[in-house]
Design a protein that fits this description.
By secondary structure, the chain is of the alpha+beta class. 28% of the residues lie in helices and 20% in strands.
Length: 236
């Protein structure tokens, strides 16, 4: 009985350059392409889940297929430059790059992309690029909805992260506290607005109800004193 052959680009295929199951254990999409041709050479299950192409389909796929048509010329130019020089702005980027991508069914995604050079021991003369791709489409859609809610709200609204740092503030909040647009973003809420008690003495951060709710979910009911940028206070 002839043993079953692995699907093209399956992790058990020897063309996985020794990565084997480790490559496929990564939950994000991982794709390796030949810079000279744009041909997909490695493709994990995460890539199939995200882009909807099977291993068989991916084996004959060019990486530009995953790029929206309006960006393909720029993509080809960047890949060609990487093939010539072995470097490029995306390859050298110190952080993830956010770009649009395209599923098999034509759905456009927003993905975070980390690119790096990859060495193929069996073909050291060729230039390969590896992309680790994370889908952030739903996150960006949620952020857009939140931004619309904040923009349309007449109430002063601040959004904090789990460190108590302001990550969003609507115009009503900026006007209420006397700060110019964007000035509250990146600032610790307590230090910016709660720093003092009504008599002007220091207000310990560990007693700040808003800060505790943001950092650990503790629900406290208290009357808070907020301070405007001009030094006047208001009670909420």
């Amino acid at each position: 009985m002839t043993p079953a052959q692995p699907h093209p680009l399956d992790p058990s295929d020897p063309r996985f350059w020794g990565f084997g199951a480790l490559f496929d254990a990564i939950k994000d999409a991982v794709i390796v392409a030949d810079a000279a041709t744009g041909q997909v050479k490695l493709w994990n299950h995460g890539a199939s889940d995200l882009f909807q192409y099977s291993f068989e389909e991916a084996a004959s796929l060019r990486i530009e297929t995953l790029v929206p048509p309006s960006l393909r010329e720029r993509h080809r130019a960047g890949l060609a430059a990487f093939h010539r020089t072995g470097s490029g702005p995306l390859i050298e980027a110190a952080s993830h790059v956010e770009v649009p991508a395209l599923r098999k069914d034509g759905t456009e995604l927003v993905v975070q992309l980390a690119l790096s050079r990859l060495h193929n021991p069996s073909d050291p003369e060729r230039c390969y690029a590896m992309a680790i791709i994370h889908d952030v489409t739903e996150l960006r859609q949620s952020e857009q909805i939140l931004a619309q809610i904040l923009a349309s709200s007449g109430q002063a609204t601040l959004v904090l992260n789990t460190h108590g740092v302001c990550i969003k503030a609507n115009r009503s909040a900026e006007e209420l506290f006397g700060h110019p647009a964007g000035a509250l973003i990146g600032r610790n809420l307590h230090e910016a607005l709660h720093h003092s008690k009504p008599d002007g003495t220091a207000f310990p951060a560990e007693e700040c109800a808003s800060l505790m709710q943001a950092t650990n979910g503790t629900s406290l009911h208290a009357t808070d004193v907020f301070w405007r940028s001009d030094g006047t206070s208001l009670t909420a």
